[in-house]
Amino acid sequence: MPRTRPALSSTGPVRLGPDSRAALRPAAVGIGPGFWHARRATNAHASIPQGPALLETAGNLHNLRLAAGTAAGVFQGAYPFVDTDVYKWLEAAAWQLAQAPDDDLAGEVGRIVALVADAQQPDGYLNTWFQLVKGGERYQDLRWGHELYCAGHLIQAAVAHHRATASDELLDVARKFADHIDSVFGPPGSGKPIDGIDGHPEVETALVELHRETGERRYLHLAAYFVDRYGHGLLGGEAYCQDRVPVREATDVEGHAVRQLYLLAAATDLATETGDAELRSAAERLWHAMTTTKTHLTGGLGAHHDEEDFGDPYELPNERAYCETCAAIASIQWSWRMALLTGEARYSDLIERTLYNGFLAGVSLDGERWLYVNPLQVRDGHTDPGGDQSARRTRWFRCACCPPNVMRLLASLEHYLASGDDNGLQIHQYVTGLYTSDQVTVGCETDYPWNGTIALTVEETPADPWTLSLRIPQWCREFRVRCGEKTYEGPTDDGWLRLHRTWASGDKVVLELALEPRLTTADPRVDAVRGCVAIERGPLVHCLEGVDHSGGGLDDIVVDTTRPLAVKHRPDLLGGVTTVVAAGRRRHLPEAGWWPYSAADESPQQDGEPVELTAVPYYAWANREDGSMRVWLPTS
Amino acid sequence: MPRTRPALSSTGPVRLGPDSRAALRPAAVGIGPGFWHARRATNAHASIPQGPALLETAGNLHNLRLAAGTAAGVFQGAYPFVDTDVYKWLEAAAWQLAQAPDDDLAGEVGRIVALVADAQQPDGYLNTWFQLVKGGERYQDLRWGHELYCAGHLIQAAVAHHRATASDELLDVARKFADHIDSVFGPPGSGKPIDGIDGHPEVETALVELHRETGERRYLHLAAYFVDRYGHGLLGGEAYCQDRVPVREATDVEGHAVRQLYLLAAATDLATETGDAELRSAAERLWHAMTTTKTHLTGGLGAHHDEEDFGDPYELPNERAYCETCAAIASIQWSWRMALLTGEARYSDLIERTLYNGFLAGVSLDGERWLYVNPLQVRDGHTDPGGDQSARRTRWFRCACCPPNVMRLLASLEHYLASGDDNGLQIHQYVTGLYTSDQVTVGCETDYPWNGTIALTVEETPADPWTLSLRIPQWCREFRVRCGEKTYEGPTDDGWLRLHRTWASGDKVVLELALEPRLTTADPRVDAVRGCVAIERGPLVHCLEGVDHSGGGLDDIVVDTTRPLAVKHRPDLLGGVTTVVAAGRRRHLPEAGWWPYSAADESPQQDGEPVELTAVPYYAWANREDGSMRVWLPTS
After folding, report:
1. Which of A261, A420, B469, B571 is most buried by its number of CB atoms within 10 A?
2. Among B304, B320, B477, which would you mutate to test the A interface (most chain A Cβ atoms within 10 Å of its Cβ)?
3. A147 phi/psi in degrees, rounded to 5
4. Residue A229 has pLDDT above 60, yes or no
5. Which of A161, A277, A248, A260 is nearest to A210 (CA)?
6. Separation CA B355–CA B299 (nearest Å)
7. Are A219 and A178 in contact (CB under 8 A)?
8. Helical H segments across A525-584, by residue range
9. Per-residue pLDDT averaged across A112-140, rounded?
10. What mean pLDDT is predicted for residues B237-259?
11. Pairwise pLDDT comparison (B634 vs B9), residue with the higher score
């Protein structure tokens, strides 16, 4: 049993306030060797250490020095929010320092925190774009300016830095900026000069966390004010900016996906801290609307390249799926807050699906190349101009929001896996390691997601009985739990298998999740995948890649759903993956005339030669040569 | 037999030069009462007359007065190409004046031509954006500046004005600008100051036509220079601007659809005038690539909202089809040049399909509201922010390229319907009216596309035998031609039914095209319509509209392909249309959980109650209340 203790800081991105109405409290997990341990090692040893050099090359750090007056030159970068790349990297580095002391990294963090502090203006304002490019003009273009959005990421970085290092240095900068914002923004009649909101929600959830960290209620009130001012036309009434309808009245997620999700994270934070039942109800309603009609199989969100927007219900394209990596991260952040608030398992079901698929595909296996958008299909002969919205991995982006966002989530991942309450411990995600809440410690050993056996050992326990709650994943059709002499099988009522008893140290529980590969279909209203199936195994969505199917492309392939799926572990492939092997064939298409449409009773013959299909986990796609890829496979 | 003679000007947008290698010569048609006569009457009496007021309100005419120094104020409009809205309206009005004298319209044209002439700078340069906003800076931003694009539309308007009215006033303005461009642009070593091309091809096809109108070969050479400079990185090498690969080497249509199509129209013009076999071969290759893999059923072109771009082969989405109205027009313009160059019927097959569907949907039945994009699906519950890319008709656009483009095509439509050669007359499109070429005149009476009977009468004929060629549409599975005592039935080898004989005045030919409604499927690589059929009848693509299917939306409807289709003429509906009635049912969907994907062997029950489906012609959609629409219908 690995002895990986939880990190130095057992407080992650979400800490509940003393008056919180949450059903569950975040618990700490020390992640030992296994799937996520490996991804986090790459994050720690490749992605995060490269950050400062990339931020230097892109000009972000240069801008801070310019703003501080310690360098000469012109602003670099195309967007008013480039400072957030620095803040998100600082947040990632702070969570990483909380895992393991690292003098080099601590030195880099200290150096960059000092750059940020130096760039701040005496009254607390901080945004290099407006300080350098816009002649210090402030808050005049709230729709596009991103000043409060930048403040939000600064605050989150500062809270992480404070929690990880106990240093006040960055927290002081953030508080000073938050105080400045609080002195400027307020409702009519408040005496504050501006009644306004930012075109990109983000500061709201950050302000709630700053309240939690400092105990200062002003920040909570400011967050509540901002959240409730969306939807009243202050930004022109556009859905893109979340300004078409107030959160409390909304019936569907809409507009820019990341904007919507950060706003809903904040609404959930407020419901958690204040008990606001209307906000909670809105968040539950909108989460349901999102998952039932606007979520890709991978957990990816956002149907439109244009405006990075949610589309219509059931509009879930494959090759033009946007599924921004940041939207996957925002979805995980929001769902975790919902899981804590409600105690319901489905929120962690979506987190699991998103983590293993839509989120993880955003970073290459070597941690050095990124996807901003995460399509579910790349056609044979796909032409790709590259750039941020490319289906090809890129070293860094012009709008580099995603890479440091991935870094901060991976570096804080142990805070999204488990919770505790007065009744015991809840395990939301299964990793080898130690789960700890209050007086309870449970060890876990597993090769999940490759293997469905999860072996748990009670390591520390109080004398009184308590409940060990295990989330049975929504995808799982068969499971068995052995606990002492008892055996439990599914289904559960609500996704939680609750083991209530008096525990002794050394007690063992073994959960077996059946990991048979399966074929999945969609609601018939999802037009984009009509007549198709997807291959899944456990929490993993699989896909075909052109590189595994030589002698032709993917677009003439049909899967044979009558033949069994086979599982093949391939330690050599893509860092070691379990593939699913399916039977298929290549369509014979008659020589095309000039018009690709024909009478329905004259459809071309479609028999073809058999072909073995190798489906790799979606998260690992685009790590070999550029080529085609498909998640959804035609059945005829 | 209606006695509608061809228009005052029998020369339309394309006049072949004396050295032309075209197989066919454009012929003139006088369009009598019927389908297109009605659309053209609306164009003449509603759309075109409203133009000047709309151009005044939008500021286009104001900009011309500002540039002339006859008014004060600031430039209005968001784009450097707003002058083209004026030019395209002038071209439309000129073709309209060629149809019928109209003092009011002639007065408006004269007034606006004078505004244009006054705005021109002494050396011939003319672009109000650069004159007013950019301080007269010229040709410094060819990628986005649209200066030559604007010149192209000015030239086309001037050629139309000259052909329609014989006035030199606008032609002189255009020649002066063309001469200026010719003095500035040329290849390295030519002594011209700029080796460059415009980010939006358009001037090239206009310059060929200016050469045809004036006999001046410099314009032809300038066009050839421009066409061949695309694809060499002068614009940064982007596919969007047609600068990734030279036309001669291209193997697929790509980038911005309208840019690609205007460029290919010019390449075809050049092949026609110079006999350049390589350009002709490229044009044929690219037309084939476009129609086989990148054309929607409606003839619509352009798969991406983002960059108004062609997508990958077989990437033909429904709700996110872009299918810009201008792209449909450009496709017709290019295909007509291909039809004349090659004599092949398939080009007019695509013209017919585009005219009746993807093009005509761009304007409302009342001629007063427009679609910029022409999707093939609008979902139940579609949210639409309005604006240029809206699926809802709009009075005018911020980028108002499409409305006057529709006006100019409708006003010159009689020039796209027929041709002549030394062997006789070719009828490409069937309308009631008189077809005239050289010494041949053929009258036609038909209620096409509602009825498949086309009654032709030879009205004037030379004594020698000649060939009457009738295009048998690609969609037509059965036809019969009675000519005297002979009867001909299909199929034809190449889409042309050729009747060669000695004709006498009064000879009658009756063509019967079977108009049974039909179900159509797509090549299986068109993922977006897998498991669906479309309903077509004759050249018309049909669609369902939500407004005809009360008691539910369209997204739960399934069509029953085993039941016969019925035809119902509805004189009351949408200005009088023939509808197709199909049997369908509404799926019963089980109450949704939170996740819309499920195991393939647990698919939800799909029986449902029968529903009668009413399919209206696609061109007439969105003329009643806002709602849902579908062209492609699921079969199960």
Report:
1. A261
2. B320
3. -65, -40
4. yes
5. A161
6. 8
7. yes
8. none
9. 95
10. 97
11. B634
E-strand ranges in B409-517 read: 418-421, 424-427, 433-437, 440-446, 453-460, 466-471, 479-483, 486-489, 496-501, 508-513
* CB interface of B with A, residues 337-356, below 8 Å: 346, 349
Closest CA to B25 of B34, B14, B35: B14
Take residue A251 and report the two structure tokens written for it. Answer: 């019936």
Residue B242 has pLDDT above 90, yes or no: yes
Q: Per-residue pLDDT for A401 more than 50?
A: yes
The token pair that represents A559 in the structure block: 């899967």
Residue A261, classed as helix, strand or coil, is: helix
Residue A450, amino acid: W
The confidence score (pLDDT) of residue B9 equals: 59
Angle between helices A48-58 and A60-68 (to 10 degrees): 60
Going from the C-alpha of A163 to that of each of A166, A436, B283, the distances in angstroms are 6, 18, 65
pLDDT in tens, B432-472: 999 999 899 999 999 999 999 999 999 999 999 999 999 99
Q: Could you list the beta-strand ranges (E) of A377-439.
A: 377-378, 418-421, 424-427, 433-437
User: Cβ contacts (< 8 Å) between B315 and chain A: which residues?
Assistant: 319-320, 379
Is residue B253 within 8 A of residue B290, CB to CB? The reply is: yes
Is A108 noted as a catalytic residue in this protein? no
Q: Which residue of B has its CA nearest to A558?
A: B524
**Which tokens is B31 given?**
């369009």
Give the SS3 label for residue A533.
strand
Q: In Å, how far are A196, A199, B506 from A147, measured between CA atoms?
A: 12, 9, 80
Contact between A304 and A334 under an 8 Å Cβ cutoff? The reply is no
For A556, name the nearest residue in chain B, comparing CA atoms only.
B525
B308 noted as active-site residue? yes
Q: What is the pLDDT of residues A537-588, one digit of tens each?
A: 999 999 999 999 987 789 999 999 999 999 999 999 999 999 999 999 998 8
A597 contacts chain B (CB < 8 A): yes
- Once rounded to an integer, what is the mean pLDDT over residues A374-381? 96
* Euclidean distance between CA atoms B272 and A439, whole angstroms: 87
Tokens of B636: 């199960």
Confidence at B2, pLDDT banded by 50, 70, 90: very low
Once rounded to an integer, what is the mean pLDDT over residues A340-362?
Answer: 98
The identity of residue A581, as a single letter, is: V
Residue A525: pLDDT over 90? yes
Looking at A392-495, which runs of residues are DSSP E strands? 418-421, 424-427, 433-437, 440-446, 453-460, 466-471, 479-483, 486-489
Sign (positive or negative) of CA dihedral A525, A528, A529, A534: negative
Q: What is the pLDDT of residue A606?
A: 62
Q: In the numeric block, which tokens belong to residue B588?
A: 């019963």
Do the beta carbons of residue B540 and residue B357 sit within 8 Å? yes
Q: Does B588 touch chain A (CB under 8 A)?
A: no
CA distance A83 to A64: 8
Locate A395 and state its tokens. Answer: 């070293």
In residues, how long is chain B? 636
Q: Under the phi-then-psi rule, with left for phi > 0, alpha for psi from -120 to 50, and beta for the rest, what region is A124?
A: left
Residue A418: pLDDT over 60: yes
Q: Is the pLDDT of residue A2 over 50?
A: no
Name the residue type at position A247.
V
Report the alpha-carbon distance of residue B161 to residue B96 in Å, rounded. 10
Is the Cβ of B167 closer than 8 Å to some Cβ of chain A?
Answer: no
* pLDDT tens digits, one per residue of A42-66: 999 999 999 999 999 999 999 999 9
Helix A203-214 × helix A217-229 angle, to 10°? 160
If phi over 0 gives left and psi between -120 and 50 gives alpha, with beta otherwise, what is residue B576? left
Which of A108, A209, A308, A445 is labelled catalytic? A308
- Give the closest-approach CA distance of B377 to chain A in angstroms: 11
B340 neighbors B23 (Cβ within 8 angstroms): yes
